[in-house]
Amino acid sequence: MVFMSGDSGVGIEEGHLAYKTKIYNYDVTVIHAKCPVSKYFISIEAKSQEVLGDAIKGLTYIVPIQNIAFNEEMNCATLRLFNRLIGIYSDGRISFCAENLNDAAEVLRGIDEVLREAREYVKLYGIPSSDDIKRLLKLNAIELYKHLPKTNCRNCGEATCLAFAVKVLSGNRKLKECPLLLRKDFEEIERTYGTIALIALGIA
User: Which of 2, 13, 19, 89 can pair with 105 through a Cys bridge, CB separation 3.0 to 4.6 Å?
Assistant: First the structure.
């Protein structure tokens, strides 16, 4: 069920029907506009009552590398979560497409949980530096594969080391699940991609 206040006005925004409402602790503008994915019928522009600040960078600890991109100039992150693209800005703005208001409420609840977890990681491990984030997000499956044993032993459950690397970057496996990796391998990854990689890849 969606917890929201009554509409505070209906208008036109960029040629589309739009109205304002409240979902949980977010002030929301709902725009009836075509979204890139056909099953989504509304665009959501939500504004948190709090500044998100350091939680934005903290997302790199918990969101799979393949599912996150940063724009430092705009102080925002673009995430691929909940089967859609979501823009999250440090000033508290959140934008995404949804099927309806109930779907939007579920997404906002999920985003709240992700941001809460990001804040906890920031408390534990500190705010990732911009340089560390840039290095981490350059990591791809081929580069990660170079740090793996390359034996295709299948002891991790995957057919090849490259397949394992792909699963790690997608967030479906943790790097420590490779039984042949040694401490020196972890140390080399940390030197190359920063301490944040130990957490983001599931080593720490």
Answer: 2
Q: Do residue 114 and residue 146 come from a single domain? A: no
In a domain, 142, yes or no: yes
For 87-117, how does the pLDDT look when each residue is reduced to its tens digit (9 = 90+)? 999 999 999 999 999 999 999 999 999 999 9
Task: Give the domain-ending residue among 110, 126, 142.
Answer: 126
Query: Residues 98, 38, 11, 77: is their CA dihedral positive or negative?
Result: positive
Beta-bridge mates of residue 85: 80
Rounded CA separation 74/82 (Å): 23
Helix (H) or strand (E) holding 43: strand 42-48
Q: Name the pTM for this structure.
A: 0.85
Say if CB 21 and CB 28 are below 8 A apart: yes
User: Does 54 lie in the same domain as 74?
Assistant: yes
Residue 179 sits in a domain of what CATH number? 1.10.15.40
The Cα–Cα gap between 52 and 194 comes to 24
> Three-state SS for 98?
strand
Please, how many CA atoms are within 13 Å of residue 128, restricted to the half-sphere of its CB? 29
> Is the same domain home to 18 and 109?
yes
**Nearest residue to 91 via CA among 42, 37, 132, 53:** 53
Q: Say how far apart CA 176 and CA 62 lie, in whole Å.
A: 16
